[in-house]
Amino acid sequence: MKSFKTKVVGITREDEHGRNTQDSISLFLNNKKSYMGENLYKGLTNTEILEKNIHVSEYDGMKFNGLLEQGTFKNKPVLNVYLLDENKKTLLGYIPKRTVDSLNDFIADQKYTVTLEFVGGNTKTVTWENFDDDKVVIKSPIYKCNVTIELEDE
Length: 154
Description:
This protein has 154 residues and is α+β, with helices and mostly antiparallel strands. It has one domain (3-151). It has three helices and nine strands; from the N terminus they run E-H-H-E-E-E-E-H-E-E-E-E. Strand 4 and strand 5 (88-94) form a beta hairpin. It starts with a strand and ends with a strand.
């Protein structure tokens, strides 16, 4: 299956309804938390994170449904990226300007699926205090989003 991967830009602004996109992402993900349980933080325990000395985002590796639609931003044509949740769609941002033409060529007259993966947000990381006391702490930077567009087999 052929795929095209890129990032979503404009994800730290307000959407067309004046809502902060970061808040919309947090609300969506918090509503899904109860279904994800042991899959959060890639299913790793704090002990495993300490042993591996890694940092891992709460939703690392989890995929969500998305949608692409033609739109405009600052009076210029863009490909908007939406997060789908049942019958609701939330504008996250858009495909980077430098990528739009090649992506449009890739999906021209094709059936495709859009998958989103969030990066950042709540992240567990190892910290050392007093150089002897290592522990896992949660940091909460902004969310970023990667998008994968896969052509469907005919």
